[in-house]
Amino acid sequence: MTARASSVEALEAEIARLTQERRDLERQQRQLRVDELKALVDHFAQQLGAAGFGLQDGIDALQARARPAPPPVEQPVRHSVIKPAPFVTAPKSQPRPPMDAVHLRAQSVLGSDAIDWLQRAHPLLGGMTPAQMAATPRGEEKVLALLAAYARGA
């Protein structure tokens, strides 16, 4: 065997070793990312629970953020009379605190930012605004729980 042939064999062996080392490092990197993701999910679940939300609420909020906004649809200009929507009241069988409770709590927690916060879509509320979400008894509970979490610094 010539010196050149053994040199080529040594290079091929080194290439094989480095290729295997690269695969091992990539496998370790993937495992570290999986571990990091698990830690983030655990932390996210704890924060959701502390704020009074379930895991499905968090998943819905994440999915709402992941969906791209639909492109605006150009509507033809129509000149027609717009009829107001009928006034709908909550059923008498399900009394709930008035929306003022949410406004007051938002004001006490957020101060002058309360009005803007109530009108801005929130990912933990499935992309709805807190004001929209608070229109139902369950939604109002979620908004008040979110404000309670903000007050605790969560």
Give the secondary structure arrangement, pairings included.
Layout: H1 3-50, H2 55-66, H3 99-110, H4 114-119, H5 130-133, H6 137-152
Helix pairs in contact: 3-6
Protein model, in words:
The chain is mainly α. 64% of the residues lie in helices and 0% in strands. Helix 3 runs parallel beside helix 6 (137-152). It is elongated.
Question: What is the residue-mean pLDDT, rounded to a whole number?
Answer: 79
Distance between the termini: 71 Å
Classify the helix fraction into a percent range.
Answer: 55-70%
| Order of SSEs | HHHHHH
3D shape: elongated
Q: Report on the biggest sheet.
A: none
What ranges have pLDDT less than 50 throughout 5 or more consecutive residues? none
Total number of beta strands = 0
Quaternary class: single chain
Overview in brief:
With 154 residues, the chain is mainly α.
What structural keywords apply?
154 residues; 64% helix; mainly alpha; single chain
